[in-house]
Amino acid sequence: MPDGSVILVEIQRKTLTRVWKGRSEVIAQVGGGPNGAALGPDGAVYITNNGGFEYHEIAGLNIPGNAPADYTTGRIERIDLATGKVERLYDKVEAGKLSGPNDLVFDKNGGIWFTDLGKNYKRSQDRGGLYYCKPDGLLIKEAAYGFVGLNGVGLSPDETVVYAAETETGKLYGFDIVGEGEVAKSPLGPPGRCVAVPASHVFYDSLAVQANGDVCVATILNGGITTITPQGATSHTAFPDPLVTNIAFGGGDMRDAYITLSGTSQLIKTRWPEPGLKLNFGQY
């Protein structure tokens, strides 16, 4: 934000939070599991809410798990930064309920691309997908379905491709945009083309796109940020937490990288070798 603060979601605490000068302030008690946040064209923050997780401490790390006992549905929400008011926009599509919305990005026309991770239960799993909606609450579309947990989402600089990371397989997919909320179909299986698959077993989480079009994907197990070119070449920057879950760019030259280390509940800031892509309705 222009005042130097960072606004983020805390899934376990169920809040939208402002971090500023060594302290944190709760903007809104959201409930469920606020998972991703983005500034909209009206200055409000829009939230992908996964409905909540069970949490477990394993080897000193905070690990999310299955749906909690009070889980009902996932949803898309709007939060007024001045008042903290939370407004639910969507909790279903024509095909059924939203299971676990995870992350979102605004296109230049003010539409929202978002992913649904699905939901895990003790002996079953809801699949996830890629969706599109309008912030006025009047339009939502299912662009692609059937993935094992679509997580981070971002747009190419020319907005012809929407990228999404599949968590459990560790794949980065590219979906060619052919219309409003529509992506190119595939003759076999779900839409989308596999851009990259890591050589080792990792989980991919949220992502951000650089100004040059490369995709920076937060990486779990081999904790760090994996940078992937549109052609599929990869490089990795390690950080001291196996649960690196998100990256966002800011600063005057867009080379300040804000990274969430979720296993140890830290937000860090570091300089990045390439500038990030300016978001359509970001504050920079």
Characterize the structure shown.
With about 280 residues, this protein is mainly beta. The protein has a domain at about 10-200: Neuraminidase, CATH 2.120.10.30. Helix content is about 0%, strand content about 50%. The protein contains no helices and 29 strands. The protein has strands spanning about 5-10, 15-20, 25-30, 35-40, 45-50, 55-60, 60-65, 75-80, 85-90, 90-95, 95, 100-105, 110-115, 120, 125, 130-135, 140-145, 150-155, 160-165, 170-180, 180-185, 195, 205-210, 215-220, 225-230, 235-240, 245-250, 255-260, 265-270. Strands 18, 19, 20, 21 and 22 form a 5-stranded antiparallel β-sheet that branches. The chain has a 4-stranded antiparallel β-sheet with strand order 4-5-8-9, with no helix packed on it. The protein has a 4-stranded antiparallel β-sheet with strand order 12-13-16-17, with no helix packed on it. Strand 4 (about 35-40) and strand 5 form a beta hairpin. It is globular and about 50 Å long. The mean pLDDT is about 95.
